[in-house]
Amino acid sequence: MSEIGSVQPADRPAPVVAPVAAAAPARAVAAEPTRTPLEPAVKLDLSAEADAPSPAQTEADYRAQYVRDADARQMVYQVVDPASGDIVVQLPSVTVLKARAYAEREAAQTARAGAQTAQVDRKA
Prior knowledge:
This protein has helices at 48-51, 55-60, 94-117, and strands spanning 63-69, 74-80, 87-91. The protein is flat, with a radius of gyration of 40 Å. The chain contains three helices and three strands.
């Protein structure tokens, strides 16, 4: 068995502490600049001149309509371009309507299949 008592710790020199420079004086905080009030987010002109539509506005106006989707059996909101008849916006989207119709059809088929397999002859 070896003895550790004969091992002496090494002499370490005292750490050298560098002098700390004085902290720089804090700069004066400038006064907060005067703030101008913000413009309103929405401007509404109720004058008689603003009420008359311009020719450019009447051509670009879209028509909003509600339509009942037969497959999903749900009301759908559509914004239609009157010039071309294209649907600009539809809520819920076509993808969502197809997914709902598919899910309902699958649920009905599963319920129908489950009802057929659930019939068990329990006579002994």
